[in-house]
Design a protein that fits this description.
This protein has 14 helices and nine strands. It is mainly alpha-helical. α3 packs across α14, α4 runs parallel beside α6 and α9 runs antiparallel to α10. The longest helix is centred in the C-terminal third of the chain and has 22 residues. The protein starts with 53 loop residues before the first strand and ends with a helix.
Length: 480
Amino acid sequence: MTITTPDTAVDVAPAPQPGPPGPLRAGGLRRRPLRHPQKRRRRRVVVAVTLVTTLTLGATAGAWLTHRGPFTPKPTEAFVALASTGLAVAPDGTRAELAPGSDLVFLEGSRVAVADPATATAAELATAQDMRDWLAAGTVPGAGTEFEDMSTNALLDLYALTLDDGAVVAGWTPHWRYAWPRDNAFVATALATTGHTDDALKILEFLQGVQSADGSFEARYLPDASGPPDDRGVQTDATGWALWSASTVLAEIDDPVARAAAAAALKPLIERSTTRILALTKDGTALPPASPDYWEKRTRKATLGTSTPLLMALQGADDLFALLGKPYRASTVAQAATTFDHVVRTKFGPNFPRDLGGSKVDTAVAFLLPPFAETADDDVLAAWAAAPEAMARAGGGLAPGAGWKQDGISWTPTTTVFALTAAALGEDDKAIGWLRWVDAHRTTTGSIPEKVLFDGSPAQLAPLAWSSANVLLALTYLGD
């Protein structure tokens, strides 16, 4: 998402470096895969920014250096204003950003903003209660732990960012008020794993409705499903994200009759997406043509960020076709998935860089590991473990990739993807460290921002749907 940003930043104190893990298992969380009844299933991240001021950090480095993450990236300053601290929902359903410094506060357990809770109207109280009832109808990952507040706020933010037609906007600031298939896919998966399956299915139905007949997706859509807002064009990884999410959401439906009915309702999405992915990969025997991925930049090279979502999708599609009563199609797709897995690992291995033939790693290396993949290949593990040092930023989080601009800005989508992967791998200390960093850099209203500056200040906008979903998924994996 490339936009022009303002030139000021809101100042907050930098957070301390992540410490040892706390009593995370006190809440009784289950460590379980996002899975189909028979087998584990797969999983996805963002980004691009036009910065207006870049300076070399000098004498002020000592003031924040000790608060950085475990690595030592090049100290660089870049400033991006925080446009919103949170998103409020009024009784009539309208949404409004909360600007930094706003005196409004949320009613407890809701996203209803008021000047004084004591003078809230009956409609405001009723709307807040509806949100609390929605929370109670599902689960709060991390309940009873240090992360319960962050998890609750992440769920409420996803509630606020999900519209009546099932569209999930990335954020409410104008340049983000669109539905990216990737973000919608992650939110659907997160909502399904927290007990809100009906909401998740509605999101997938929105994606099904905007998908082209050939199975492709535009980079983003207007939230009323009337089409794309611009001419960014088709983004190949989006088809993979949508189909992957369908497999993870349906896997959360315990009743076999209801699960089969949901699959039947999503049949157009399943069939169109699978047909397109098989065509792009020549039945799993070749990498797809070059296409923009989550970096949303034109490229002439195949990227891991495009190939991995297609692989994840194929690895879940066989169960979807089994649900549709098409065993032969399921077998064909399963074979293509096995072949394509070998192609991706051979072409991009052993170092798994962002670009085919390149040398710099990016977020997509995580998509070859659990919970996105069933197994943890040694070469992928090594590349993933080394990636944070190359992608580290001064504020303590991660950039989208080692080749990203040296601006000192951390991106919460990438940082939370690494937290999720670490949690799924059983690397609890790493997962908790990243989650603590995110928790410490939330806005004053409790929302997760898109970016964090070199000095720990939240930046750009909050809440961000993708990061909120990643946090919920990571917390789902932490615990027993």
